[in-house]
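REVIEWER CHECKLIST
Item 1: Sequence provided? yes
Item 2: Single chain? yes
Item 3: Sequence as submitted:
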Amino acid sequence: MKKIINKTEINYTFNDIKSDTTLVLLHGWGQNIAMMEPIGNFYKDYFNILILDLPGFGESAEPDFAWGLDNYVEMLKELIDDLNLKKIILIGHSFGGRVALLYAGTYKVEKLVCLASPYCPEVSTPSTKSKIYKKLKSIPGLKWLANIMRKSIGSSDYNNASETMKGVLVKAVNSNLTNKVKNITCPTLLIWGDNDTAVPIKRAYELHNLINDSGIVIYNGATHYAYLERLNEVVKVLDNFMGVDRK
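Item 4: Structure as written out by the authors:
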């Protein structure tokens, strides 16, 4: 299914069983609907299931300018309102988790699940390559060399993105949602792998301290994709959190 929201075509799937509660699933950076279907498939008999390709990914169009997280939130709110969905359980992974955190800190959500979801910039010491790049960039006549070097020091997510989506990524990774996260009042579940090198495990504990009604589940040996690596275990935890009885 597709809808035009904020001048952007949004691709989504909606399994409507006429439940009063809808599970909304948001994928991570560079991913698509398929990455969240493994979770959605377990709940298609219990809740309405809405999964979307976030703008710029999958079959959704890129936004016409570099959206900030607030633009993604407003897009999601408009889609939810357009579908007349009342009770929302929001599940987001990584970039989708950023959007979910901001959404839950802005609008009413019944429950929130964050799968390795960053909420603030990562502070790192500039590498030698980064320092050289910045120096070359400032020297007239050597910007061409700086541009070549940027490809060797930038993340693959950044290098593989269009110019518009590079702008989206820069805005996202530099966003600090601390104040909004403090506004979250719904029951919140944080699921992480202790070997996550993309979003350090310390972020889970920080979020736990920022969100009053929250709990943490850590999977030893799991990575940034703990929710897929330990899918059956995660589903059991989600069943308990969302009150699903499979008997």
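Item 5: Key structural point noted by reviewer: Residues 124-129 have pLDDT under 50 and may be disordered.
Item 6: Recommendation: ____
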